[in-house]
């Protein structure tokens, strides 16, 4: 493994949350069916272009979800998984909860985008429980999303507040799904996870060599 | 043919202590508030409740938990910014929690209504929530065995029923309604409108009347934005 000589696309500065959301949006293939998790992944919807013709799924029973509703458009019977009032787009459909998760588990969603506390080199995701003994546990649809979509993209900061990397050899937090994450979008780099290990597609305000010094898993440059 | 009850109180009068009750709704969308209020007034206690959440604010399921009528709750997402009544009951050790991934919760309810004795699902495999459960590798992928959730009663909310019990719903308020109606021995449904038999186009019926035992008409409240105007 020769990380020093690797040629990885890079930009001069680290990405902010909005720039990261725009990058994820631009990577979603036209015509995809997509579920965006609660929190940072929701920002992705602001950067999807109409010509991408992406259909958004919300696990509480809708395809064709539109933007957040405001003012007179607010309808308490039309909410997203975060219980925020939303709108419906032409071509939308409603279905019950078992159908909604069958759609997910059955591999019909192309991509889901989730936040994470940690991701392991093997694609294990930890995003539902801090492991704190006094925490009231709540899982919602996190495990179903992690397991069901064809591709699972994670959006997160690469390092925790204490400076430790959130891309790890093995998750110390309770896992949400095993071997499910295919890409990680962070403020410092984009990582591709697969049979070839963890590959770095591009870096932001850092280099592959610098990342390798701070991230405790072997990194290689993505080919092509 | 279903019974058409004259009031919410009459519709839930048969729910006794220690019953298992499926309650529809995702957050407040589709939550049958008036039926839950009537259940609270009726005094039944020791209940096992199945819902996606564990109550929000000071209404509906949250009040049932506040009054300690719920012995055990099966849900996917109890912890919310306004789930203070559940939080207090849980921290006091006065409610038992079975936490289930949301899709497994839905499929376990569906399985009960469909007469399925359980199923293997990849969701949750390798996680804390699968500990102690039977597992099997199917086509190279780990699966967890999950059991059906049967219930004595379902309390759900739909938009319109006809007198044959056929139901249609409204937008994302549909959520757990159709599968809960099928999974309970007796389903009690609050609707905004009741139309004569034949008044619903059979092509658009979502829940066929075979799953519905009791209907009660609770007129929809005026939209909040109307009330908010000076």
TrEMBL record, chain A:
SUPFAM superfamilies noted in UniProt? NagB/RpiA/CoA transferase-like (SSF100950)
Is DNA repair included in the keywords of this UniProt record?
no
Question: Which family, according to UniProt?
Answer: Belongs to the 3-oxoacid CoA-transferase subunit B family.
Which of UniProt's keywords are assigned here? Transferase
Q: Which top-level group of life is the source organism from?
A: Bacteria
Q: Which InterPro entries match?
A: 3-oxoacid_CoA-transf_B (IPR012791), CoA_trans_fam_I (IPR004165), NagB/RpiA_transferase-like (IPR037171)
Protein name listed in UniProt = 3-oxoacid CoA-transferase subunit B
Indicate whether Transferase appears among the record's keywords.
yes
One Pfam family hit: CoA_trans
From TrEMBL, chain B:
What the entry lists under InterPro entries is as follows: 3-oxoacid_CoA-transf_A, CoA_trans_fam_I, CoA_transf_BS, NagB/RpiA_transferase-like
Cite the Pfam families for this sequence.
CoA_trans
Q: Which domain of life is it from?
A: Bacteria
Q: What are the record keywords, sorted?
A: Transferase
Q: Which Gene3D superfamilies match?
A: Glutaconate Coenzyme A-transferase
Q: Which SMART domains match?
A: CoA_trans
Please report which protein family the annotation says this sequence is part of.
Belongs to the 3-oxoacid CoA-transferase subunit A family.
Q: What is this protein called?
A: 3-oxoacid CoA-transferase subunit A
To which species is this protein native? Arthrobacter silviterrae
